[in-house]
Amino acid sequence: MFSKVLILAAVTVCSVLAAPQKRLGGPLPLGTAESQAVILAQEQNHDPSGAYNYRYETSNGIAAQQTSYDGANAAGEYSYTGPDGVLYRVAYNADTYGFQPQGAHLPVEPPVPDHVLKSLEEIRANPPRDQEFNLAALDAQIARLRATLG
């Protein structure tokens, strides 16, 4: 009896999980630009070295492109028209520092305090002798922080 209940419970759980998932916000109304969108342009190139690039554009105003010269670090941008009718554009880098988006609608990092930048520049002038110390990463961080100063 217990095994029949267990099997019935497993079948019920599997049925629920296998059911089609609903889109958040409900289905798209038929005839809208979103439901009728088609791909207008699409390109992709992959190199055996790991380098790649892709680009696409759809009829409902979505566009994206991305390039990577090593397969690990990438730069790109995407744009779309929001529900408010505004065209949103995001440019980004994705590398060892993570995903770094920039867009007119996104908040920006506040300027770095002078004492922090001076401390990093002192470390740069007298780098540690540790083999694991990454001077290039420090240079990139200083450049990024200087950019917050305007």
Automatic annotation (TrEMBL):
Keyword Kinase annotated: no
Keyword terms of this UniProt record: Cuticle, Signal
Lineage start: Eukaryota, Metazoa, Ecdysozoa, Arthropoda, Hexapoda
Any single GO CC term annotated in Swiss-Prot or TrEMBL for this entry: chitin-based extracellular matrix
Protein name in UniProt: Uncharacterized protein
InterPro entries referenced in this protein's UniProt entry, alphabetically: CHIT_BIND_RR_consensus, Cuticle_Struct_Prot, Insect_cuticle
Residue stretches in coiled coil: none
Gene Ontology molecular function, alphabetical: structural constituent of chitin-based larval cuticle
Signal peptide region: 1-18
Keyword Lyase recorded: no
